[in-house]
Amino acid sequence: AQSVTQPDIHITVSEGASLELRCNYSYGATPYLFWYVQSPGQGLQLLLKYFSGDTLVQGIKGFEAEFKRSQSSFNLRKPSVHWSDAAEYFCAVGSPWAGNNRKLIWGLGTSLGVNP
Amino acid sequence: DAMVIQNPRYQVTQFGKPVTLSCSQTLNHNVMYWYQQKSSQAPKLLFHYYDKDFNNEADTPDNFQSRRPNTSFCFLDIRSPGLGDAAMYLCATSRVLAGSYEQYFGPGTRLTVT
To answer: What does the DSSP assignment read for B8-24?
Structure first.
């Protein structure tokens, strides 16, 4: 079955510390991979995406993610967290055959808290 | 700036009273999605339009309907809201091309059912 797992429901880090949010997926082929961020009461904003090519992708707000095929993972990282990064983070995957399936499979999200 | 707009941002309706939420986009994307998101949960896809082609999720209640009169607008109709329908409703769009179909979200409409 196709699924996305975000093992950490909630993480708290200190401002300035590094961050890694985990995402593992189960899919029949290498899917398209996405990370979204959601601030309280807001919609979701795309942080970064991976379709093919370089397995280390850069996104907005200083985030990056690394695709590891052998581990079926797409972990999100940031070297130095800012208080404004406190939010909910969702990992999502989609079919590489976009013409047949335009839907995303979502993880349950990781809530990030930032201590001053 | 090109964007996805949802109106209203907050909607209060009474139990059983029909309500319509609207979404518009200036991105000229061919796919529009409606999601329901409850507190501390992932978004749940209700349905989506690929151009004029309507695609309903199997577990979407019949109480939820959608209309897409043109490329730019999409509406979510809840015919008889129940207390369990109180949630954030998110509209998203994407442009499905080979190699790219990330979704862009509006700010959401928070629905309260009294």
So the answer is: -SEEEE-TT--EEEEEE
Place of tokens 């309507």: B54
Minimum Cα–Cα distance from A38: chain B residue: B107
**Cα(B31)–Cα(B110) distance, rounded to whole angstroms?**
22
pLDDT at A1 over 90: no
pLDDT tens-digit readout, A86-108: 999 999 998 877 565 578 999 99
Residue A101's pLDDT is: 58
Residue from B33, B50, B27, B71 nearest A99 by CA: B50
Contact A25, A72 (CB under 8 A): yes
Q: List, for residues A27-70, the tens digit of each pLDDT value.
A: 888 889 999 999 988 889 999 999 888 999 999 999 999 999 99
Query: Measured between beta carbons, which residues in chain A are less than 8 angstroms from residue B105?
Result: 36, 43-45
Q: Give me the pLDDT at residue B14, please.
A: 97
Interface of B with A in 28-87 (CB under 8 A): 31, 40-43, 45, 48, 50
Q: What mean pLDDT is reported for chain B?
A: 93
B101–A32: do the CB atoms touch at under 8 Å? yes
| Residue written as token pair 């850069």 | A58
For A16, phi and psi rounded to 5 degrees? 95, -15
Quickly list DSSP for A36-60.
EEE-TTS-EEEEEEE-SS-SEEE-G
